[in-house]
Amino acid sequence: MQNCIDDFQKMGRYTVLICVLCEVNFEMRRSFLDSNICAPPTLIGCRNRNDTGWLHPHHLCDLYHQGTCDPIVEYQFLSVNVEFAQLCGEGKRIKDSTSYQMIGYMVGALVFGQVSDTFGRKWPMLVCVAMTGVLGWVSSFAGSLHMFTLWRTLLSFFNTGHIVIVMVYMCEKFPRHHRMWLNFVFSWSPNLMFASIIAYYSQDWRTFSRALNTLAFVATVLLWFCEESIYWLVRKGRVEEAEKAMKRIHRINGDELDDKALQLVLQHEKRNYEETKSTGHYFFHHLFCTWRLLGYSLTMILSYFAVSIINYGIMFNMEHLEGSIFFNTIFIGAFRYLLNVISAAADYNFPAVGRKVELTLPMTQAD
Known about the structure:
One of its GO terms (molecular function) is transmembrane transporter activity. By secondary structure, this protein is mainly alpha-helical.
């Protein structure tokens, strides 16, 4: 018996399309967050002096700041720091640049969450993806650190926009019984490894940025062939469009569709919409309008905050780890993905584990 929209969403070719789209979106995010772009060089000597071979980098930096050292640097990746000669303490300007870019990141999250609720998932995400590609390419031609920061701040605004939307889009598109494990498998972790491989062969931040942001145009094409979220269409009372979208999804999958059952479910959803539309629109402050919602919201906020501090603390300070920055990133991505696969298997095969345990256990391990 098909009683809700979820009952009509099945695994098939359309699910594969959504999975590929989501993974490409996640990979694009690396163009903003990847630590290789701002990897600092090491000062190893001075071209104009013969007495610096034994000096510690801190002493070399003192000579550099005094203007008596024409620097010789060693680096694994031709980053923004290397190209714009941000050496020694000047590297803090790169950290400042990253902080400014994070402002665009936060504003984009606030703006596009509301935009996607108002105008749908597909078209706002398509705009964000396309703008990410354009601004990613534009930023790769920046001639100074100031212009780099400006373009990357705009890039981060749209970059986070499509990430905010795609997370909801995934949940609304994946079949109910496969929703969680697919979210684990198609996630951030694999693209850490892919991005590191691309960075290794790119060897400079401009080529790397262009390579990753070219994926935006691939994502734009993929998204063009995707349907709007059925859930969003129904909630907006656009039942006829929802029916057409569901029929097209089933044609792509090659599945039989019970038209009468679908119409009954959609009509039921439409009646629910008519009964509840007088309650008005929801905004951010409604997340805190009851004690129960306040508790849920604060729990999620603190969870994401704690995990983000650990994640970004590592990703933005990879230069302090010994060894290859490429191998270290691949190792982190592989380890995270292993945990993802274990969580996916547990969720699919042992429903009694529950989402609460799946959320709490990794956080305790991170601690």
